[in-house]
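Reviewers of the previous submission asked for a worked example of the structure-prediction workflow described in the proposal, so we include one complete record here. The input consisted solely of the amino acid sequence. No template or homolog information was supplied to the procedure at any stage.
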Amino acid sequence: MEMQASRQLAVTQQQAWDALNDPEVLKVCIPGCDKVEAAGENQYAIGMALKIGPVSAKFKGNIALSDINPPASYKLSFEGQGGPAGHGKGSAAVVLTPNAAGCELAYTVQASVGGKIAQLGQRLIDGAAKAMAEDFFKRFDLEMQKQHPASYAARDAAATAAGAEAPAEVSGGVPIWVWGAGALVLAAVIWLSR
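From that input alone, the workflow returned the following structure tokens.
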């Protein structure tokens, strides 16, 4: 499977990078996550509960970062086990690009899954992955609003001055995975759940 997308964030490139590399921020933003811990240099252990259709499981996995270019990009590889529910592994590339509105987060994820989850059907898995990604972005955006209220106030003021309505919530966020523990933890989590 492959998934790619980009999101506009109201925070700066450095602020997004820092948040995507903060295990506590990721733990709050990843749906079902109960653990994101450093497990060595540029390595993290993650634990989360997922439910896709009739299959529920607790997943344990590892994420390793490589090609790290702070605060612009990195790659990550991940693998996870959910017992009889299934397993997954894959990789993701994350890029943060500064712009006048803050920064854009772009990511590409490639993953494969096996076990009961793989038997659910591609449409159900894709729908669940997209829903998890959107949930992550909403949570991440809310966390960035809490940590950097001035960035969001400036964005809303600029939108109002331009004659547009200030967005109630930003559709952008980090995925899953700009992290290795970062924005693509989301992507990793999404793909681990497949």
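The longest helix spans residues 122-147. We consider this example representative of the routine output the project will generate in years two and three.
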